[in-house]
Amino acid sequence: MAGKLSFSLVSPEREVFSGLVDQVDAPGVEGDFGVLADHAPFMTALREGLVTVIDGAQRRRFEVQGGFADVTPAGLTILAERAQELAEA
Fold first, then answer.
1. Using CA atoms, how far apart are residues 13 and 10, in angstroms rounded to an integer?
2. What is the dihedral of CA 45, 39, 36, 24, to 10 degrees?
3. Could you please report the per-residue DSSP string of 21-63?
4. pLDDT exceeds 90 at position 87
5. 37 touches 23 (CB < 8 A)
6. What Rg do the C-alpha atoms of the chain give, in angstroms?
7. First to last CA, the chain
8. Is residue 15 exposed (0-12), middle (13-18) or buried (19+ Cβ within 10 Å)?
9. Could you give the CA distance from residue 69 to residue 25 in angstroms, rounded to a whole number?
10. How far apart are CA 80 and CA 69, in angstroms?
11. pLDDT value of residue 89
12. Calpha distance 77→59 (Å, rounded)
């Protein structure tokens, strides 16, 4: 079984989400990307779009407007210009 990814989504006002998850999909300026535990380090700018956080069968979606994603050996941090969780449909 694969390990968990440490993920933090931060806006200027507050930390919107923090936790251990299976996968995060995000809207990079050069295309959408997904991050799992032990992903190779990289940094990219984000465009407006949806960040999807997957943990088992649970999916949470957050609308982001710009910012940066930083993948390190410690996990993924998204610093968003604006971020808010979307209500489940």
1. 8
2. -10
3. ESEEEEEETTEEEEEETTPPPEEEEE-SEEEEEEETTEEEEEE
4. no
5. no
6. 12
7. 30
8. exposed
9. 11
10. 8
11. 57
12. 18
Percent of the chain with pLDDT over 70: 97
Question: Up-side HSE of residue 72: CA atoms within 13 Å toward CB?
Answer: 7
User: Does residue 61 have a pLDDT over 80?
Assistant: yes
**AA identity, residue 19:** G
Q: What is the three-class DSSP state of 89?
A: coil
pLDDT of residue 88: 74
Q: What are phi and psi of 76, to 5 degrees?
A: -115, 130
